[in-house]
Amino acid sequence: MKDFKGKLIYISGGSSGIGLGVAKLLAGRGADVVIFARRQKTLDDARDEINACRMIEGQKIHCQSMDVSMREQVEEVLKKAVAEYGVPDVLINCAGRARPAYFEEISYEQFEETIKVDLYGVWNTVSVLLPCMKERGGYIVNVSSIVGFLGIFGYTDYAAAKFGVIGLSEALRSELKRYNIAVSVLCPPDTDTPGFVEENKTKPDETKVISAGAKLMKPEAVAEALLKGMAKQEFIIIPNADGRFTYIMKRLFPWLVEMVTDSQVRQVQKAK
Ligand SMILES: NC(=O)c1ccc[n+]([C@@H]2O[C@H](COP(=O)([O-])OP(=O)(O)OC[C@H]3O[C@@H](n4cnc5c(N)ncnc54)[C@H](OP(=O)(O)O)[C@@H]3O)[C@@H](O)[C@H]2O)c1
């Protein structure tokens, strides 16, 4: 998909960070955009920002409060949205969050919440929208992470969810071809967003050292990379060169990646 003019895009998590960056870029390319997230005030502010990026005045930008982890609510809100705004051409599942910590410090409740938001959240929106999207085809993008293919220290619950997003998307890609629906998975590296600021508050020292080498991306650059990847219908879209290098190394030389991260962890633990 290259031309977004006149297309209808639904974005969960479109009120902040990467989702907002994608929404603004798509508005600039002429798309109608509906964003979904929980907090109404943030949604309203984001809608105003997206409105200001429109290519032409007639483009429609809407926002709806919805918690992706709550199945019944997702069903109710998305069915209403389809009745009101139409069937989306593109669904982008960007809602998500990370709360890094040592495994022993992650409560069962946090694990459950992470899986519900980051993994069930994707299942919920896709399962509600697929019956109407499959009638005319389209595009689904699920947002995973570098942690979706590399289990990094401090991210046991988040890695479980984001690895799951890649597996789900891979199987879905194969299944939805027959409906002319493309599926991609976006794996951003560390990106300068409000969510990343929150994430940094609980990072164990070992996690900080492992991620210290990675260059922080801007959400606008991640959004640009996503649209480029969608134009080529790439399945895995990794926005930066470091991330792509890590992906290849992890596939070809997993032992080498383990050696490097283990030595970073050892350094921190020795210094304690
Ligand atoms: N930033 C990074 O370094 C990074 C790296 C790799 C992957 N990612 C992934 O990229 C996505 C966006 O992250 P971000 O950094 O842009 O985060 P962000 O700035 O915190 O934005 C997250 C968005 O998701 C919404 N959201 C969170 N929980 C939700 C829920 N239960 N239901 C509906 N909406 C929800 C938030 O709004 P409300 O809070 O109002 O609901 C907000 O709109 C996430 O999936 C994240 O895991 C981020």
Describe the protein's topology.
Layout: E1 8-12, H1 17-28, E2 32-37, H2 40-51, E3 61-65, H3 71-85, E4 90-93, H4 108-133, E5 138-143, H5 156-176, E6 181-186, H6 194-200, H7 205-212, H8 219-231, E7 236-237, H9 241-252, H10 254-271
Bound molecules: NADP nicotinamide-adenine-dinucleotide phosphate.
3D architecture notes:
The protein is α/β, with parallel strands linked by helices. The chain has one domain (8-271): NAD(P)-binding Rossmann-like Domain (Rossmann fold), CATH 3.40.50.720. Helices cover 53% and strands 12% of the residues. The protein contains ten helices and seven strands. It has a seven-stranded parallel sheet with strand order 3-2-1-4-5-6-7, with helices on both faces. Helix 1 runs parallel beside helix 2, helix 3 (71-85) runs parallel beside helix 4 (108-133) and helix 4 packs parallel to helix 5. The model has no long low-confidence stretch (mean pLDDT 96). The structure holds NADP nicotinamide-adenine-dinucleotide phosphate. Residues 12-13, 15-19, 37-39, 42, 66-69, 94-98, 117, 143, 145, 188, 190-191, 193-196 line the site of NADP nicotinamide-adenine-dinucleotide phosphate. NADP nicotinamide-adenine-dinucleotide phosphate (NAP) binds next to helix 1 and helix 6.
Mean pLDDT: 96
Unreliable stretches (pLDDT < 50, length at least 5) are none
Order of helices and strands: EHEHEHEHEHEHHHEHH
- CATH class type: Alpha Beta
Distance between the termini: 50 Å
CATH-defined superfamily:
NAD(P)-binding Rossmann-like Domain
Radius of gyration: 18 Å
Q: Name the structural class.
A: alpha/beta
